[in-house]
Specification:
Helix content: 25-40%
Distance between the termini: 27 Å
CATH superfamily: P-loop containing nucleotide triphosphate hydrolases
CATH architecture: 3-Layer(aba) Sandwich
Strand order of the largest sheet: 7-8-9-3-10-11-13-12
CATH class: Alpha Beta
Shape: globular
Length: 323
């Protein structure tokens, strides 16, 4: 069953040279229980696209889509009250930097019970008991004693676990995790990823994992969408995208993995930067950085090509596709 259905999502912001498309025509569907990865460099539009789903793109940003539905509900037409009731309950998001997301002026217990109270009825004692249960579930030792702690008194990994506890407090059907391990050391990263997958198995929720780390994608996701400059340039099952990338950008990301540079003097790197509001190239947005770019790539925007197991936006895909 399709849980999240997005077709032709565009997020625009005004810029000195006109309108900047931070997200440009993104289409995505997520079924119940799916684990979908969205990968790309900083500035690719990964986080902004999911903020649009959450209803968190603020003015002067403008969100448009042919379809933007969750569990059959049209998110574009929901009132603000209904959208607030949905966000945090049926759709929850773990943000990239936990210390910036948690309020430093309030205790962990207050913030967690406040989240529960916003969406569920019950007594103060019941909310406190639920908060203790949630902290224990995400692996925080002595959870009852931690309720009185403030964010600055906890490590980055523990704050991230608190954020996950808040996100799953109301048993969401879809959890969006935005770079949940980027600020953590390798050992804690593995623990957080294992925790997310365990919660997904126990709750049956779908997970969208936003990351720039292809190794994380390999270990956790079933399907991957690669974004570049606001566009989805490739979508495939995770095992296929890692073994047979179709877009030159995907291949370049994989080539930059340290383990693929074994025996070489230098790591592979992609020259240049993701284009921003003021330096958008003509034709394919990746063409200034692409070693395979030809004249057509510099003049014409590439079509979206399809196969039974995925799609790619490229004039010269590395593996044959059909128009």
């Amino acid at each position: 069953m399709t849980l999240l259905d997005i077709d032709n999502l565009t997020v625009r912001f005004p810029s000195p040279r006109g309108t900047y498309r931070a997200v440009d025509g993104l289409s995505l569907s997520v079924d119940e229980g799916d684990v979908v990865g969205i990968v790309g460099e900083s500035g690719a539009g990964k986080s902004v696209s999911m903020l649009a789903v959450m209803g968190l793109v603020r003015w002067p940003g403008e969100v448009q889509a042919d379809t933007l539905e969750f569990a059959g509900q049209d998110l574009k037409s929901l009132s603000n009250r209904k959208r607030r009731a949905l966000s945090g309950k049926d759709i929850a998001m773990v943000f990239q930097e936990p210390t910036a997301s948690l309020n430093p002026c309030f205790s962990i217990g207050f913030q967690l019970t406040e989240t529960i109270a916003a969406h569920e009825r019950g007594t103060a004692a019941g909310r406190r008991a639920r908060a203790i249960e949630l902290l224990g579930r995400v692996g925080i030792a002595a959870p009852e004693s931690r309720l009185s702690s403030f964010p600055h008194q906890l490590s980055g990994g523990m704050n991230q676990r608190v954020m996950i506890a808040m996100a799953i407090a109301c048993r969401p059907r879809l959890l969006i995790a935005d770079e949940p391990t980027s600020a953590l050391d390798v050992t804690i990263q593995a623990q957080i990823l294992d925790l997310l997958l365990e919660l997904r198995r126990e709750e049956g929720m779908a997970v969208i994992l936003i990351t720039h780390n292809m190794a994380v994608v390999a270990e956790t996701t079933q399907r991957v969408i690669v974004m570049y400059a606001g566009q989805a340039v490739e979508e495939s099952p995770a095992d296929l995208i890692l073994s047979q990338p179709r877009h030159p950008y995907t291949a370049a990301l994989l080539a930059a993995l340290p383990e693929r540079a074994w025996g070489q003097r230098r790591l592979q790197a992609i020259p240049g930067l993701v284009p921003g509001a003021l330096d958008r190239p003509e034709g394919c947005l990746f063409n200034p950085r692409c070693t395979l770019a030809g004249e057509r790539c510099r003049r014409q925007a590439p079509p979206e090509l399809e196969a039974d197991d995925g799609r790619v936006r490229c004039h010269t895909p590395l593996i044959g596709m059909r128009p």
